[in-house]
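Hi R.,

Here's the chain you asked about this morning:
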Amino acid sequence: MKVLFLDIDGVVCLHKDKDWDNEEEIFDAACCRKLQEIVSATGCKLVLSSSWRLFPESIRSMFRQLKPFGITRENFLGRTPLRGERGDEIMAYLKKRPQIETFVALDDERFYSRAFPQDRLILTKPESGITENVKNACIRKLNG
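And the predicted structure, written out as tokens:
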């Protein structure tokens, strides 16, 4: 099984304006299409690693906004546990699921976990999210 650990802010929900303060967080259509292309090209499942996983309304909003791009609840395995550092949270998730053969984490922030293999982290920029290069890197790493 292939898994993509998905952050939301700075990945599919962009913050181009430094003074960004909007009650409704809108997903970028181009980034969502690229996420769908990753899922299609690799057959990966998604695991929510974003802080959005902590808030039921945020999760509902995420599903509403991804649905037009063909990404539904069925594409998700679940969400990472709350452990403090995102890399450690992902490693705890993986430890309980030996069926996961390969994975990447898509995030706009570096991980500082010593346990997390840094070559599995694909960084985005908060203002651009999933670019063509990011998409291709995810596909390459997930497909081996």
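Strands lie at 2-6, 45-48, 76-79, 102-107, 121-123.

Let me know if you need anything else.
M.
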